[in-house]
Specification:
There is one protein chain. This protein is an alpha/beta fold. Strands 3-2-1-4-7-8 form a six-stranded parallel sheet, with helices on both faces. A hairpin with a 7-residue loop joins strand 10 and strand 11. Helix 4 packs parallel to helix 5. The chain has ten helices and 16 strands. It folds into two domains: 155 residues, Rossmann fold; 168 residues, Alpha-Beta Complex (L-2-Hydroxyisocaproate Dehydrogenase, Chain A, domain 2), CATH 3.90.110.
Length: 332
């Protein structure tokens, strides 16, 4: 094998991680690199990771390197190349005697977690580490973590690939097109019910969605709400949040960052704004992204947004600004 990569996964005993972790060492996500895994959980359940490690060993993945597990995040962070921050306190559970139902509660509780994790990543992770936040509220968790890390060489991202994949599936059915022929599905803004899935700039068999679909009533009244509310629909249908599809989306994001983007294409994730598309600098915002030959991730800046798109995008930007205000006490 040509080289190795160290990947830290939090929430490693959860359902998303159970689907995610084997794919990190299957020889596809990182090519022929050896993959060392550092699995992290809270003290109450960390012992459950022993069984997962047994399964990994029994599966005989040729690309699997050293596998460790711990409840000490700082210890796991040392010299890590990738951090997949899956763990967070979810909506609906009882935490410290209170049922967590409001987004404001999620921001408050998870904010402290991501301050500590950000500091550890900034101090112990590799200087060019890439961090993907999966745990919700993902954008603002990433915003908090990036601020705490205080290392501009590290790339903090929030996952919007799941929303992008969901949108592709809906468009595939609408246009009777193979999902492989749908590219550049951009999710603008926040990973929340305010996100804007862009059906105008998506490429369907290399044609713009605005030409292929040409149905604004369907776009506004059906497509956008379905993408925005798909997570809730999954919970209502299966009694639990998305796991397999979330794991697949995390893998898709890693792979998109590990290989140069084909000319003209892009992928969807949220990163810190540099002012592109009039988004206030510093917000972790969903953008169209490209990976360059040297591994650098950049915002694709040549997308044209209609007045309709701008109005929808602004709703999400405003929400991100309100979340920033809600966590300002965590900024140092």
């Amino acid at each position: 094998m040509s080289s190795s990569v160290k990947v830290v996964v939090t929430g490693a005993a959860g359902q998303i991680a159970y689907s995610l972790i084997p794919r990190l060492v299957d020889g596809r996500t990182f090519g022929d690199k050896k993959v060392d895994l550092a699995l992290v959980e809270i003290p109450q359940v960390v012992d459950k990771l022993e069984g997962l490690v047994m399964e990994l060993e029994d599966s005989y993945f040729p690309n699997m390197g050293q596998v460790t597990y711990t409840d000490n995040f700082a210890e796991a962070s040392k010299d890590a190349d990738w951090f997949l921050l899956v763990g967070s306190i979810p909506r609906g559970i009882v935490y410290n005697g209170k049922k967590i139902e409001e987004r404001s509660d999620l921001l408050s509780i998870n904010g402290g977690i991501f301050v500590d994790q950000g500091k550890a990543i900034g101090s112990y992770g590799k200087d060019d580490a890439k961090i993907l936040v999966v745990g919700n509220p993902a954008n603002t968790n990433a915003f908090i973590g990036k601020n705490a890390a205080n290392n501009d060489n590290q790339l903090w991202m929030a996952m919007t690939m799941l929303d992008s994949n969901r949108a592709k599936s809906i468009i595939s059915k609408k246009t009777n097109t193979n999902i492989d022929d749908i590219n550049n599905m951009i999710i603008w803004g926040n990973h929340s019910p305010t996100m804007y899935p862009d059906a105008e700039n998506v490429l369907i068999s290399n044609e713009l969605g605005s030409s292929v679909i040409n149905d604004m009533e369907w776009t506004e009244s059906s497509f956008i709400p379905k993408v925005q509310q798909r997570g809730k629909a999954v919970i209502d249908a299966r009694g639990a949040s998305s796991a397999t599809s979330a794991a697949k989306a995390a893998i898709d994001t890693v792979m998109a960052c590990e290989s140069p983007t084909l000319s003209g294409n892009c992928f969807s994730a949220a990163i810190a704004s540099d002012g592109s598309y009039d988004v206030p600098e510093g917000l972790i915002c969903g953008y169209p992204l490209i990976t360059l030959e040297d591994g650098t991730i950049e915002i694709k800046r040549d997308i044209s947004l209609s007045d309709f798109a701008k109005s929808k995008f602004k709703i999400s930007i405003d929400e991100l600004l309100s979340e920033k205000e809600a966590v300002k006490h965590l900024m140092q």
